[in-house]
Predict the structure.
Amino acid sequence: MATKFRLQVITPNKAFLDEEVEKAVIRTTQGDIAILHDHIALVAPLKIGQFTVINSKNKRFATIAGGFVHVDLDKTVVITEAAEWQEEIDLERAVEAKKRAEERLEKRRMEVDTLRAEMSLQRALNRIELAEKK
């Protein structure tokens, strides 16, 4: 059995996850990284993407909305704007969010916050992609 480490995922609204895990795979701005027990110390920015939590034969998938990961000797902490387990994703709601973001981006008027619309589109696409993997 692999050695475990403590993984915490924290959002502004709640502690999304706080448990001992064998492996975590998370998307940084430089690509996906796998974190195991005794991983080198690290702080890295995260992209809007997915992460995987692995214990024995159990894999769980979730989305994250950017943020940072901090790995040290005692634990790994992910700080993100939002996180959602695969089974909690409301696919219909994500598709609607995607449509709204695309409509805002099509308008490209001065009153449209393009960066905000692009981020909203990325989050919706990420949620749709993970939800459709079921």
About this structure: The radius of gyration is 16 Å. The mean pLDDT is 89.
